[in-house]
Amino acid sequence: MPRPRSAARLTAISIACAGALSLAGSACGETLRSDSTFARPVPPPPVRRAAEWETLETGLPEEARFHSIFRARYNRVDGPAPTLGAAFQPARAPAPVLFVEGTYAFSRKRPLYEAGFEAPLGDRPWLQIGGSVYRRTSTEDDWIVTEGENTIFALVARTDYRDHYESQGGQGYVVWSPGSDFSLRGGARFESQASLSVHTRVSLTGRDPEFPPNPPIEDGDEQAFTVRCRIGPAQLPIRGGTHGEAVYERSGPPLKGDFEYGRQKTWYVGGIGTLRGHDFKTFAGDQFFVANAEFYQRARKNIYAFTFLDTGAAWFGSDNLGRQRPAADLGLGVRIAEGPAAITVAKNLRDEKSKLRVGVRLGDRF
Questions:
Q1: Where does the signal peptide begin and end (predicted)?
Q2: What is the pTM of this model?
Q3: Which end of the chain is more exposed for a tag (fewer CB within 10 A), N or C?
């Protein structure tokens, strides 16, 4: 059967979100037969539902278990960067209760670290509070390409799809997740940011002998509030679904820092993960939107053929949305199961003379 899926991303747009949750349940008791010697109803045993979480006052959740952390990445600023750490991880929660990890960026000769926690407010798992302190290599492009996928491209093709900078500081947040298809997260961060330069060139192949320069940022201290709203599953399954996300960020009073928006982040769209009929990061702006839709059809066992439509734009200035002429890209693709790879061919519908663009994905994202 055909399986549609779609996603939408918005940023720098303030929206109001509301959700309702309906819960229903039933209980049954056992009674003796009417011809029993003691023919009377037997009350059901009291229901004792084990709490999935414990509060901070009573310690770690009983379901939390110790897990070691090991991963590695490779990019144009860090070079090889292995990470070691430890975490207490609940069986049915995506985030660890407590974690600490350290990373060494060999090309920068720089130790990095992060330690933090996530725990419920009370004993209800749908409301959580968390925070961390860190010194890390950060990026604004993790919504486009994952760290693992970017590592493969950097090692094999000398292609780094992420722009990087160093951040050091801390953050705190509260997350409300009444169901798997909705979450609302509010938080604040306080950090120092600094530009990073390219420190490596090693790769198996590549069109150019060196990685392209890593764009600099405006160095300084940032203190910002953020609000993020998600509607739909966190990750879209191959069977279909819809995912939408909106982010609002503000830097300025009552927080203090070197930036007040004022200082805007620059976002890029085009190419892998956004507008697949365009060159990578064709459009730039302090505001943007991107919407992707895919329609799947099983071709063979574990092989899916799909068509897709991408649209989006990026621009500067909050009053310029109405002046935009959003890009529109149409394409075809083939994906292996629900990952781990896909090949796409896309055409820019706004330009009749544009060439077909072939793309490769090494994950389950658009």
A1: 1-29
A2: 0.77
A3: N
